[in-house]
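Today's session is about reading a structure prediction critically. Students often jump straight to the picture, but the first step is always the sequence itself: look for stretches that repeat, for charged clusters, for runs of hydrophobic residues. Only then move on to the predicted structure, which in these notes is written as discrete structure tokens rather than atom positions. Here is the chain we will use throughout the hour.
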Amino acid sequence: GLVVLGSNGEYPYLAPHERLQMVSCVRRALPRDRLLLAGSGCESTQATIELTVSMAEAGADVALVVTPCYYRGAMTSAALVQHYTEVADASPIPVVLYSVPANTGLDLPLEAVLALAQHPNILGIKDSGGDITRMGLMVHKTRQEDFQVLAGSAGFLLASYALGASGGVCALANVLGAPLCQLDHLCREGRWQEARDLQHRLIEPNVAVSRQ
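Below is the predicted structure for this chain, in token form.
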């Protein structure tokens, strides 16, 4: 599948109608059997709900909802759980949480993730923070839920797989899709030495794509 309007898509610089046009365009080009995730996060709960509904109408299969962060000091676990619960309750498509502290300055708290993992319309989380201990805890503590933990960067994809993550959403796939698919294949087959060698080769290109 594909993700549109994530951080690499520079969604904050697009007007709502431009974001919807992007989803519609990609949906027309993408085969129906390919999953389309679209970023619909806004600062307010109501705006996020409205854009998520519109994204579904434009053809998105899943909404990727980044943490609101402008009033970061007020974004407690309770506030974020309420925000995401209201969005998931109203969304006609499944929701994936999105934590990207490098851009938002806010890490979705672990206790909030664990509470939200129980919601039937929240499928998982894209975690771009790179804290492997945290990711391992999320995998471990949600193992009884229908909840997927996704690595948010190719830089720690192998480590995430080793701890039980379901997959990854990686900006590097825009330019090195085939090697990332190969890394996924090697991990799923348990060919860890080959996977480690490939992961090492992907670290520097990933830094060039995501940090420079």
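Discussion point for the tutorial: The beta strands are 2-4, 36-39, 62-66, 95-99, 122-127, 148-151, 167-168.
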